[in-house]
Design a protein that fits this description.
The chain is of the alpha+beta class and 718 residues long. The protein is built from 14 helices and 38 strands. Helix 2 packs across helix 14. The relative contact order is 0.14.
Length: 718
């Protein structure tokens, strides 16, 4: 496996709302409202100088103004205290990670603000109070290095997991520094591998060799700012002397090229080099002694692992292999015999592992030593299976009996035996861990999260709305059992709607404590653009078809009002990243529908997104301004460009971070600046650390969450 930058799989999953008081901005931007013409010259490009003196002076002034409104409100202090209490609660479930038969866990609490990596035996982990051994202390390392480190995971050499690369991020950004550690001794290797800061992917080829994709100088990075060159670095060799083994093209604006090294329990090994052509298209190459050989896989596919000599591949488009008449449907998981692939990578003979149905679609795959664990969604209901490759060359399936109405996720799978952990969770159901052993077919509850908020008065419903084009859009509603259908209920609606990411029920103690316990209603919409109903559900909202996503969200809001669950006076919305773009579009297209809007780490300037931070890597999702039809559509939905001086908008809370090197803070800044120009009220908060998230530690996150919910209460409850 490889340790790499976090890709746009990350939405802000538990970041739920709160803020505002009637307040207009008093910053120092030029006034003089103008008609918002999407093609007019951009007068706020000066805010694109992220760390510049003038932009930061503006940021600091807006932060101070917003803090004076939110942090002095009577809701804020108790909400912040409650948020920190649940984020640091010793009752939280310690999520396990199998490494060489030992259980590891990364943990943050009041004593370990930036966190520790710790370990224990599986037997001890299953007890009520495990005895942990600290392996790595990020707080101590930060103090020693005089750097605000945020841990970005460990990548260890398989199968013994002794040598590891530790990912370290300055303040939470995607760019990381890598250092070699001996996991058994818990010490950094003297004279070991060290890679300086960068957006980079690294994989262990053997104990003395790394396969690295990073910035090697001119011509080695894409226009999106991701690596296109993979080099082989030998221990003891100067980094700059590394041997190039693969090179893409600077026009490859996906997430960068990187290597993946897969092992199975029978001693097979496969080195896959991925060339990321666009957001969702990738060429895969098998690295052999004779060089990199291209696999004849469809561009929209992903190599997931190696098991019993079989390469596992997920298909995100229909595929008819060359020389065959049988077609494999998008959403299928297939396997390829590694020995046959090595002999003839141009003529592949896949075997079906899993095929989607009209209602059931693959979500995750993971391998143990001898088995495959696979999860699905069946009408947004979690399912789990164990697959085995038989001596006859076929796959057999066994369904795991998991409780209904919960999200199912693979937590970890052991490569040294056949044990795995699966997590089950729901809006009102604390997360539970189920330990399985595919070798003896056992599967049972192992540990459960203790409740961190009072959900005894609440209930969950799954409803459907009808979108503008007639598509049925499911959504979940969490509310009090005695809720009155009179339109008076303060309601928070959220969704993501992009990048084939599925939004499913999950236990969020902060949302529960700060919103549900106060009588708020929470709604999660499964709009198009996500992966809840397979690749086609995602593709329905790509590029110029994206208005369907926004229509879906508005239809859910309308359905909530029609059912009298809420009204526009009591309805707030929230979303982050691509979900922040969703919020911006809904804010400008339907300003009359919302009383509160929280826009987090958002994309908002869709005519400029390609040159802001990593924006060029998302052309496959949004389209490009270089294509006239796509430019026209982007101009029509771009929130920054669609703001108008003669429209009354609800007062939003706009949140971002200076250290966000994925989307960047520029979208949020410029959007707020234009609102200021039009004399529209808004609240703005830009924290220094946190990367593409809500904070670099629990205290920062608690403050951010308290701001969201303070805003919500002020707008929807007061």
């Amino acid at each position: 496996m490889s340790l790499s930058w976090t890709k746009e799989t990350a939405r802000l999953a538990a970041a739920f709302i709160a803020m505002t008081a009637a307040s207009t901005s008093t910053g120092a931007l030029p006034a003089g409202a103008q008609q918002s013409n999407p093609e007019q010259p951009d007068q706020y490009t000066w805010l694109e100088d992220i760390h510049g003196e003038r932009p930061m002076a503006w940021v600091n002034a807006e932060n101070a103004r917003t803090a004076a409104v939110l942090e002095k409100d009577s809701h804020f202090a108790p909400l912040e205290a409650d948020a920190l209490k649940v984020l640091e609660s010793p009752e939280r479930l310690a999520m396990p990670q199998f490494r060489d038969g030992v259980v590891y866990n990364t943990w943050r609490d009041a004593e370990h603000v930036r966190g520790i990596v710790r370990r224990t035996t599986l037997k001890d982990y299953l007890t009520a109070e495990p005895k942990w051994e600290t392996v790595l202390d990020y707080d101590a390392l930060s103090k020693e290095d005089k750097q605000s480190w945020v841990g970005k995971g460990l990548d260890c050499l398989q199968p013994d997991n002794e040598l590891c690369l530790v990912g370290l991020s300055a303040g939470g950004e995607d760019a990381i520094t890598l250092r070699e550690m001996n996991l058994k001794t818990g010490k950094f290797v003297e004279g070991g591998f060290v890679l300086p800061r960068g957006k980079q992917g690294v994989a262990w080829a053997d104990k003395d060799t790394l396969l690295i994709s990073r910035d090697w100088g001119p011509g080695t990075m894409s226009e999106a700012g991701y690596p296109i060159t993979i080099r082989e670095w030998k221990r003891g060799q100067p980094l700059e002397s590394s041997k190039e083994v693969f090179r893409g093209d600077t026009k490859d604006n996906g997430y960068g090229d990187e290597a993946h090294v897969f092992y199975d329990g029978q001693g097979h090994r496969a080195v896959i080099l991925g060339r990321s052509r666009t957001t969702f298209e990738e060429e895969n190459f098998l690295l052999l002694p004779s060089g990199a050989k291209k696999l004849a896989l469809p561009l929209k596919s992903e190599v997931n692992g190696l098991l019993s000599g079989q390469l596992l591949v997920t298909l995100n488009e229909d595929w008819t292999p060359e020389g065959q008449t049988h077609s494999f449907a998008q959403g299928s998981v297939v396997s390829l015999a590694l020995d046959a692939v090595e002999k003839d990578p141009a003529h592949l003979k896949p075997i079906v592992v899993f095929a989607p149905t009209a209602q059931e679609f693959e979500q995750e795959v993971a391998v143990t030593r001898n088995h495959l664990v696979l999860t699905t969604l069946e009408h947004v209901q979690g399912r789990a299976y164990v697959y085995t490759f038989g001596s006859g060359g076929q796959w057999t399936q066994e369904r795991l009996q998991v409780p209904e109405n919960q999200t199912v996720g693979i937590v970890t799978a052991s490569h040294t035996d056949d044990r795995f952990f699966v997590a089950l969770t729901g809006f009102l159901t604390p997360t539970s861990l189920w330990l399985g052993d595919a070798a003896n077919r056992s599967f049972a509850l192992a540990k459960s999260q203790k409740p961190l908020f009072d959900s005894s008065a609440d209930v969950v419903e799954q409803l459907e709305a009808t979108s503008k084009d007639g598509t049925r859009v499911p959504y979940f509603v969490v509310h009090r059992k005695d809720m009155k259908d009179d339109g008076s209920n303060p309601t928070l609606l959220t969704a993501y709607g992009g990048f084939q990411l599925s939004e499913t029920p999950g236990y969020s103690p902060v949302m529960g404590k700060l919103w549900l316990e106060h009588g708020g209603v929470f709604v999660l919409a499964n709009i198009r653009g996500g992966g809840e109903f397979g690749p086609a559900w995602h593709e329905a909202g790509l590029k110029t078809h994206r208005q369907r996503i926004y229509d879906d969200f508005y239809a859910v809001a309308g359905d909530l009002v029609t059912r009298k669950i809420t009204s526009s006076r009591r309805l707030g919305i929230m979303g982050g990243s691509n979900g922040g773009l969703l919020m911006g579009v809904e804010f400008t297209q339907h300003p009359e529908m919302w009383k509160a809007v929280v826009i987090q780490v958002p994309l908002l300037d869709m005519l400029a997104f390609e040159h802001l931070s990593a924006g060029a890597s998302w052309v496959g999702e949004y389209g490009s301004v270089s294509v006239p039809e796509e430019r026209a559509f982007l101009a029509s939905i771009s929130p920054y460009n669609q703001l108008k001086p003669d429209v009354h908008y609800p007062e939003p809370l706009i949140f971002t971070t200076t250290k966000d090197d994925r989307v960047g803070p520029v979208h949020a800044r410029k959007f707020a600046a234009r609102m200021e120009e039009f004399h529209e009220p808004f609240l703005y908060d830009e924290i220094t650390e946190g990367g593409h998230g809500a904070g670099a530690d629990n205290k920062q996150e608690a403050r951010t969450r308290a701001e969201y919910f303070t805003y919500l209460m002020m707008k929807l409850m007061d």
